[in-house]
């Protein structure tokens, strides 16, 4: 077996910085704002997870999880299934991600990558909570794990141009979860470095997952990254080492991406943690399309969608697509494409007056009358919007009606953006709207109280029990 690098000297600066942060940060040092933000993320994520339990995808994944057992078992959300920690991480993370209603992070006005990619940081929570459960962590320990995962993931979002180089963001989740899991499992500095190294070199992912007619894997890729991050930490715990120069080596992460970078300042010592700038969703669809859908609902108040001759939608560069390049966005054939299709979602909001689960049923996204409105929509880049993205998200509609009228509507920062935040009360309402139908009002509210006071829980046992109907 290869001899591990010295625990006191880590040559790769990215591995060194992530390891130092992960092993040195303390719950007592992170501050009330970060703890509150971590609880907000858990409330949002577990509401999404429980709301997705009866989908076909989650039924299939629970079947897979139930085939495995472990002497170090973790629980599948909302069930009595006990499976391997990595499978629990995958299934639970997939439940959080399934309805595309969970949080996002694109960075701030200080981010060097300028919102190149926007992974869902709560995709990490399947792995974080599995590690917390099997390690016997307290609620405060689990919250610190959340803060670590969001900080590491956010650092990568802020500094790494990934999507622009043809790669996909689940690799960020592998790295972030490996760090958080290493901390929760009590790994040494040397083991933590190896966990991050293994997660980094083994999990580079392809952006093909998110183009064309999109498959189920779109919603599962991020949670699979978290699963692999937890597995990397478990390997390091057992003494397995990883390549020393995972990021900066001659064939490392930076070389493969053709992009060199260094990490920015970490949260702490008066600087906000990245979890404090989480982007929450008020609609179950791609984050960059939250604002266009809001504007469509506003437009519907003054224009009958049947009267629209053309609708030009001005956005930042990454949200623009043409019908010639991506025809599936104008004719979605499945939920995964529909909830990422700007033309379809704008048309659905105009015609139906909202976005609900019914929006993603075949009878809706194949409806010729709705698709006739989709055909009027063109997506166009406004370079000033690209320049201000992501800390200022902007959108403009220029409408021409069949009788020759013209109308312009503008908006900035959708509800849930860090500069237009959802309140605790709004996140509570979102949670209860998804969880009460499954658990009933009393149990849903008891679970909510446990989440809002998680730092006082001696373990996660009560949390997992409350998520299961009838327990």
Q: CATH class of the largest domain, please?
A: Mainly Alpha
What's the end-to-end separation, in Å?
46 Å
SS-derived structural category = alpha+beta
Strands of the biggest beta sheet: in what spatial order?
Answer: 6-5-7-8
Could you please describe the fold and organization of this structure?
There is one protein chain. This protein has two domains: 13-277, 2-methylcitrate dehydratase PrpD, CATH 1.10.4100; 287-412, 2-Layer Sandwich (60s Ribosomal Protein L30, Chain: A). The chain has a four-stranded mixed beta sheet. Strands 1-2 form a two-stranded antiparallel ribbon. The protein has 20 helices and eight strands. It has helices spanning 13-24, 27-30, 32-51, 56-65, 85-97, 125-134, 139-159, 170-184, 189-202, 217-237, 253-257, 290-300, 335-338, 342-352, 362-365, 368-374, 383-388, 424-439, 441-452, 461-466; strands at 74-75, 82-83, 167-168, 205-206, 308-315, 377-381, 394-401, 406-412. The radius of gyration is 22 Å and the shape is globular. Helix content is 47%, strand content 8%. InterPro entries: MmgE/PrpD_sf, MmgE/PrpD_sf_1, MmgE/PrpD_sf_2, MmgE_PrpD, MmgE_PrpD_C, MmgE_PrpD_N. Belongs to the PrpD family. It comes from Kribbella caucasensis. Residues 17-258 form the MmgE/PrpD N-terminal domain.
């Amino acid at each position: 077996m290869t001899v591990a690098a010295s625990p006191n000297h880590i040559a790769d600066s990215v591995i060194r910085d992530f390891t130092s942060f992960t092993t040195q940060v303390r719950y007592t040092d992170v501050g009330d704002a970060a703890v509150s933000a971590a609880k907000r993320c858990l409330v949002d994520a577990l509401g999404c997870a429980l709301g997705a339990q009866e989908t076909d995808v989650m039924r299939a994944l629970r079947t897979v999880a139930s085939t495995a057992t472990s002497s170090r078992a973790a629980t599948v959300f909302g069930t009595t299934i006990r499976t391997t920690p990595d499978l629990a991480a995958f299934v639970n993370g997939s439940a959080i991600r399934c309805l595309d209603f969970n949080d996002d992070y694109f960075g701030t006005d200080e981010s060097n990558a300028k919102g190149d990619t926007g992974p869902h940081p709560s995709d990490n929570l399947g792995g974080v909570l599995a590690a917390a459960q099997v390690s016997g962590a307290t609620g405060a320990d689990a919250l610190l794990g959340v803060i670590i995962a969001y900080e590491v993931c956010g650092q990568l979002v802020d500094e790494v141009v990934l999507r622009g180089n043809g790669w996909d963001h689940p690799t960020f989740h592998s790295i972030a979860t490996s760090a958080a899991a290493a901390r929760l499992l009590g790994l040494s500095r040397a083991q933590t470095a190896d966990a991050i190294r293994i997660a980094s070199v083994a999990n580079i992912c392809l952006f093909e997952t998110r183009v064309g007619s999109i498959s189920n894997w779109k919603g599962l890729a991020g949670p699979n990254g978290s699963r692999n991050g937890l597995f990397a930490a478990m390997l390091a715990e057992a003494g397995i080492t990883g390549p020393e120069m995972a990021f900066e080596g001659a064939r490392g992460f930076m070389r493969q991406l053709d992009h060199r970078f260094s990490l920015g300042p970490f949260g702490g010592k008066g600087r906000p943690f990245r979890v404090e700038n989480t982007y929450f969703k008020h609609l179950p669809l791609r984050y960059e399309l939250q604002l266009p859908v809001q504007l469509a609902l506003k437009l519907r108040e003054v224009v009958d969608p049947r009267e629209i001759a053309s609708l030009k939608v001005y956005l930042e560069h990454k949200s623009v697509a043409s019908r010639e390049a991506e025809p599936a966005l104008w004719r979605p054939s499945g939920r995964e494409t529909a909830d990422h299709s700007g033309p379809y979602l704008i048309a659905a909001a105009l015609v139906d007056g909202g976005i609900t689960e019914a929006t993603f049923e075949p009878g809706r996204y194949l409806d010729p009358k709705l698709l006739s409105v989709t055909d009027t929509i063109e997506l166009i880049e406004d370079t000033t919007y690209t320049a201000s993205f992501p800390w200022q998200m902007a959108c403009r509609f220029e409408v021409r009606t069949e009788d020759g009228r013209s109308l312009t509507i503008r908006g900035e920062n959708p509800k849930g953006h860090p500069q237009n935040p959802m309140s605790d009360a709004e996140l509570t309402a979102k949670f209860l709207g998804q969880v009460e139908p499954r658990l009933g009002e009393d149990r849903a509210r008891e679970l909510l109280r446990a989440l809002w006071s998680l730092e006082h829980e001696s373990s996660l046992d009560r949390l997992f029990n409350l998520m299961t109907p009838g327990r």
